[in-house]
Fold each of these.
Amino acid sequence: MSDLPPPELRVPPRQEVAGLMMRWVQPLVVDGEVRVCPECGAYRDWIVFCMRDDSICLRCRAGHETKESGLDAAWYNRNSGPVDRFHPTLEEGLRHLGH
């Protein structure tokens, strides 16, 4: 008998996941400054990505993406909730988060 959970309950290894994402509705303040999309000026309702290399990227509601050097994987882990599902495509993940 295996001590492992059944396959449908196992989390894929980190190297098999392109990244993690969470929704951040309120303004995002980093080092005392509100982050603003450099293309459209949006300042809230971000999707925050923690990429495989532990870098952080922000995506505004309009779909513009920018790297955020003021945040790291440790910040993401402190602020994200538990992973509730995995998505085979970026688009499905964004739809799940309301984007």
Note: The radius of gyration is 15 Å.
Amino acid sequence: MSGQPSSIQTVTMPDDLTFEPETTTIETGETVTWTNESDIDHTVTAYEDELPDEAAYFASGGFESERAARNRVTEGLIAPGEDYKHTFEEPGTYGYFCIPHESSGMTGTVRVK
């Protein structure tokens, strides 16, 4: 046990352009923390069409839409050693990606029970 409360799940961004783990499963109301462990900037950006109907949009940089996040990518970058947190209030499956590394397959999924 790491001493962290069970209500926080950590996803890391290592040097290989992935989210680790790629799929995270949590309970409603829990928080995911994405930590950048690489030496380059990344984003955490929800795919708008991969959100449950009632779910709030999420993206590093605090954007309210995928279009805004893509248009202002530099404002959403997570620097090495930094992190981003989001609390999931609605059950369902959430797809997300890193804007600069989407073409390299840097995508992930959060499943909320």
Note: The chain has a mean pLDDT of 94.
